[in-house]
Amino acid sequence: MDCYTANWNPLGDSAFYRKYELYSMDWDLKEELRDCLVAAAPYGGPIALLRNPWRKEKAASVRPVLDIYSASGMPLASLLWKSGPVVSLGWSAEEELLCVQEDGAVLVYGLHGDFRRHFSMGNEVLQNRVLDARIFHTEFGSGVAILTGAHRFTLSANVGDLKLRRMPEVPGLQSAPSCWTALCQDRVAHILLAVGPDLYLLDHAACSTVTPPGLAPGVSSFLQMAVSFTYRHLALFTDTGYIWMGTASLKEKLCEFNCNIRAAPKQMVWCSRPRSKERAVVVAWERRLMVVGDAPESIQFVLDEDSYLVPELDGVRIFSRSTHEFLHEVPAASEEIFKIASMAPGALLLEAQKEYEKESQKADEYLREIQELGQLTQAVQQCIEAAGHEHQPDMQKSLLRAASFGKCFLDRFPPDSFVRMCQDLRVLNAVRDYHIGIPLTYRKYRYKQLTIQVLLDRLVLRRLYPLAIQICEYLRLPEVQGVSRILAHWACYKVQQKDVSDEDVARAINQKLGDTPGVSYSDIAARAYGCGRTELAIKVWVCWSMSHAQGSRPLRAGTLTWVRARLGVFTVLLHLKNELNRGDFFMTLRNQPMALSLYRQFCKHQELETLKDLYNQDDNHQELGSFHIRASYAAEERIEGRVAALQTAADAFYKAKNEFAAKATEDQMRLLRLQRRLEDELGGQFLDLSLHDTVTTLILGGHNKRAEQLARDFRIPDKRLWWLKLTALADLEDWEELEKFSKSKKSPIGYLPFVEICIKQHNKYEAKKYASRVGPEQKVKALLLVGDVAQAADVAIEHRNEAELSLVLSHCTGATDGATADKIQRARAQAQKK
User: Fold this and answer.
1) Where is the Vps16 N-terminal domain (predicted)?
2) Which CATH entry fits the domain spanning 26-174: 2.115.10.20, 2.30.30.40, 2.130.10.10, 3.40.190.80?
């Protein structure tokens, strides 16, 4: 353990920081990082390098090269930059690369260098050019902030829904600020900038001067500023060599540190984790890395190469030409177990397991010590938690073996946490592999935004379909959320491979997808059609028609012609829709039945409002009523809106002379209003329950009178109500109330169901109460259910029923029911003599 903590560095008395290698980088960089524009995505994301940018002196004929790598240095894309000069690079939350140009245009590229789209930051930015830019992340999405040549700021908080905001002017600002950053406070994006000794905060309405509390005197300028990953904390580096740390609102000071270096750092980022013992800031110069916090001493590292810092939720990634490392605060569970001379329960359990493997009696001594202190459960939990924070699989296994060893001596330790940790680590180790290059930590994977669904999306973006499918199958995710979704993405990617023939692509899709549930062949065909591969779209439609209509039968002659005809009609339809006004287009459709049918199918998936207009035009009240019922549940969340839509549906059904559908719709409206009233008066969840489930919920809540009133209001038959009440009371195991209910009046369902449901609940004592009340025709079955074979035999002999005698005889066992079996055989013999 002493050796294991060799790379631990104390920061003050309460926390340790460690730096370990993630990957040995194998990228072939021809230039230093300082000579490139660099952007690295958080959550173990990719790295983008724009080599030979315009800020470096180079021959005009040499074009810049944009390279994209995984976090392990595996190349993902490389392309010559043919657009204008780039000022800044950054990654969006969806792992799209944003390239901010000098003219204010932002070009968006995919992970594999495919151009997605572009947008402009406005005419003012175009006229004044871009001096600097920042890409930042908020709860709304990814934002871009621009500093123009006129020293004005423009930003958009979400590039997915572009809304440009021109920030207020800073009074007297004649030159670029010494440093600035984007802040997110109270769900609003702000700009914080430094001009000499002054700090200014810009919001959408005003520019205000702010002063950090407790700032050391003598500051004449701020050289660098850094906001934490969660935008809660801020660090300021001054020209006096002091680093001020406090809240991002600049209302509270956390600490201040004098690093005795006045030169401006290359980078400054926060390095902390949720519930951190010691919040810290990492500062990087050319060949020095310093970790500072609320402690008199700092941690210092020598940088052998030009390096780049990437802030993460629970630490900092540091990569250079040769290595990629992770610096973070040692988690509490790991510190308790591995620190020198630790007597924590987890440390003792780990030692006990190691001694057990050596077949040493010390294992028993360690284990007894933990048990005497009553800390064995805590020890197991510590080992499980610490395993999640370890990067090396060998140490993970060692800790999990210790946890498994400790579990053997606990009577009731829930296995969920151990099983889940094993599953999570297997997934994490798979994606951390050098060839995948996503160095996720357990904290980011389990506790924050990067859930398993987001991780699968990132694997799909990297076109790692086999690994994504293996993870889905290993975690047993539902097909629609897992394998089916990934196969659909794979098929859409497959149709874009223009170097593969249509026949081969269609065959591969058909073989791989087959009749996989949840896969939309229409989306795949649409993607193929959008790529200009009409024949491939036809073949995909044929595959869909075969899997849904023909099953495994061979393709009929003429099917291709049939699909081509309909695809041609559909193409003409879309052209006419764009060329004609709405009225003329609808009139044209009325005279073309096949075109009208195809357009209705299109509207069902793409344009629901247009579908409603078509039904109105044709006076198709039946379909119109069905449309409003679907709309009431798909689009309306408020109960009032849902009821209004259902009323419209009922009116349409009356016009269609479908009284049954109209009455059923009115009953549903009545039920919804009643469920809302029940929620207001009783609490709980009633909305969207069926009528039967509503009655059952009332009974389970002890509201029997309301349940009976509801049954009367909706004319639920007595037999059905008795079944509902019987099942609900049995689930509650309210045997006293069940007995009262059975005696309230004569049961319309008989008393055998009472016996059956008591036996189902493993209560034979209660079942015997009702066995005596069962009618003669079901008496034998009831007695057998309660285990009274002898009495069942007497009743069967009395009835002289051969089927009942055979049934009782099948329940007789040789050891205990021999006399009963003999009695039945004698009764059979006497019956045959007569």
Assistant:
1) 4-420
2) 2.130.10.10
